[in-house]
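Moderator note: this is an archived Q&A kept for reference. The question asked for a predicted structure of one protein chain; the sequence and the answer are reproduced below.
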Amino acid sequence: MKFIKTVSILILFTNSITNAQTDALVAWEVIDENINQDFLGPYLDWLDINDKLEENNTIQGTDHLIVSAEVVKGELVLVGLAAMDINEIPNPIDVKEANEFDSSLVKMLLERKYAWDDIDMVSVAGSLKGIKLPQAIINVFQERNFKEVRDIFWWTYRQFDLSSDLRWHVRQKSTNSGFFVANGNEEAGYPNSLSRSVNIGISSEILKQYIIIPWEPIYSFGEHKPIEGAWGVGVSFDSPQFGANVSYQDIELDLPKSIISDSSNVIYPHWTQSLYYSSTFRIPGKRKLVSLINEPGVAEKFVRSPGSLRVKVGLTYQKLIYGSFQTDGFIVYDESSFVEGVNIFGRMEYITDRVGKTHKWKIAGQINVGLVGQTGVSTTVSYNMYDWLVFKLSGAYKAPMTFQDADGNDYTWKPGFNIIPGLSISL
């Protein structure tokens, strides 16, 4: 059966190569049942209406689609389509008929914003010696770009990613979950040492569940008064287009007072919520002609490497509590209003295309604009010195906020700014 499947796929995509103008082909199987049904159901109805059903009677509505496409100037053109039955035998679908049937559905297939799986062209070709098929092309599709960027900034595609600024991820290749540690609340605008809390929990491709504990920042440079840490819990999710975070902290949950930087003026985040939309874009590289030493002619090299840019835009709400520790416990003086707690935030995450296991440059920038307060900016730049060693430089600034103390006087809290250099080991 495996031999029959291999030969069938080989014949299908050998025809695709013949029809294509170049050898830049990629192929994948649609494993999203809804997408398969959304295409094949109406397609079979269309064949019936046009008296073509009998000549295509091997195609069933429960089949899986197999798609091959030619990459032309970074865009896809459909060159092969088949419906794979329960016996894993692909039955060809005429590409011209597919476009005539519904070009919008064909476009939807090419966008690949659904569950899909690569067909390993190398292993298929290796089954029959003497026949060469092209390998899959990396970093052409938005979905692949999204996953690359998300893996870098959401968790990691390595087994160990340990940074001196307390951003740790440990995961096994055989599972889609891992252990993580992260300092501060990035989306709310309090990354790294601008916060005296650390998140510890379990992360997966989409979900993070964690506890929040008070923490003394390990090191940083700058003039700042971090937001205080408190015990709590949180959950985050991140998908191709939407993400959200909810966390809760309570400073009266047996907090060791030794961690508080100023027990007379305590400001901590009681509730934090965020919701954002995201999209990923392909950033083309820029080449220039250069002279070759000891060789005639000229060559090209990148002066700007191609990469992937992910943009997030959303809202963050954070309820801040201001108070102090007295002999009889924590006393609340003031708290931020709803308007003071709302932020509009935008975040950019950029990586250069991967060479081997390495993205040479990784850059992130974020701005939080408060309706009344909590305006801030932050940025991170990473450079891979070696495959396993990364140099990082992070910085953040948060604008002052004013609260009222027990006597009704103004207290101005100045979170300030920090600069944190660091090294990360990725294995």
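Archived answer notes: Residues 122-140 have pLDDT under 50 and may be disordered.
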